């Protein structure tokens, strides 16, 4: 199968990167030469969403846009994905103006598995953008809520890698996450 030039892959990724995140993102890399990673709720200020109430809760958005892109970049390096294969862009999915700046030629990958993801498909299509609906079931019962709780409740950082991987976090993403957490500690 020949690859298309560019695809967008989007998500909140708080934090990146558990196995279901990777299953979704990997589809973008398989389909396109370049994946534009649209990081939603980039500045932790998106409007409340009734179909996904947890999205706007500050407790569920502990990582900044820059921290998330750093974790991704470290992960992609560990996976052997060159920097020329991806870019990051902040994307407020609740702001219709954000859709206007997207490339109308690049399809937007959406994994449609909930009421909220169906609304995302509708938003892209309403903006006249191409959508690739994956309808890909989650490969593992992984929860960002559980992963965030492990990070919050584990003061002994040396225990984090095993706990995170057991919870479904990608092993190759652990060093990037630990680097971000270490940087935070240095600021304290």
Summary of the model, kept short:
The protein is α/β, with parallel strands linked by helices. It has helices spanning 19-31, 65-78, 96-100, 115-126, 144-153, 160-166, 174-187; strands spanning 4-11, 32-40, 86-91, 108-110, 131-133.
Primary descriptors:
alpha/beta; Rossmann fold; five-stranded parallel beta sheet; 5 strands; globular
CATH homologous superfamily designation: HUPs
DSSP summary, beta strand count: 5
Largest sheet: 5 strands, parallel
Q: Class in CATH?
A: Alpha Beta
Helix/sheet category: alpha/beta
Across the major sheet, the strand order is 3-2-1-4-5
The CATH architecture is: 3-Layer(aba) Sandwich
Q: What is the H-and-E element order?
A: EHEHEHEHEHHH
What is the name of the CATH topology? Rossmann fold
Give a written overview of the molecule.
The chain is globular. The model has no long low-confidence stretch (mean pLDDT 89). With 188 residues, it is α/β, with parallel strands linked by helices. The chain has one domain: HUPs (Rossmann fold, 3-Layer(aba) Sandwich), CATH 3.40.50. Strands 3-2-1-4-5 form a 5-stranded parallel β-sheet, with helices on both faces. 30% of the residues are buried. The chain starts with a strand and ends with a helix. The protein has helices at 19-31, 65-78, 96-100, 115-126, 144-153, 160-166, 174-187, and strands spanning 4-11, 32-40, 86-91, 108-110, 131-133. It has 7 helices and 5 strands.
């Amino acid at each position: 199968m020949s690859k298309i030039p560019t695809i967008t892959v989007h998500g909140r990724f708080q934090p990146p990167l558990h196995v279901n995140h990777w299953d979704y993102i990997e589809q973008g890399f398989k389909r396109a030469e370049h994946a534009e990673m649209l990081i939603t709720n980039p500045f932790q200020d998106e409007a409340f969403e009734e179909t996904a109430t947890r999205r706007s809760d500050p407790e569920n958005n502990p990582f900044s846009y820059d921290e998330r892109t750093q974790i991704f970049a470290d992960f992609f390096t560990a996976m052997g994905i060159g920097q020329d294969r991806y870019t990051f862009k902040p994307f407020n999915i609740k702001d219709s103006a954000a859709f206007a700046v997207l490339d109308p030629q690049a399809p937007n990958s959406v994994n449609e598995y909930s009421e909220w993801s169906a609304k995302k498909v509708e938003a892209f299509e309403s903006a006249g953008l191409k959508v690739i609906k994956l309808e890909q079931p989650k490969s593992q019962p992984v929860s960002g809520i559980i992963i965030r709780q492990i990070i919050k409740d584990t003061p002994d950082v040396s225990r984090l890698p095993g706990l995170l991987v057991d919870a479904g976090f990608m092993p190759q993403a652990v060093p990037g996450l630990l680097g971000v957490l270490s940087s935070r500690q240095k600021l304290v």
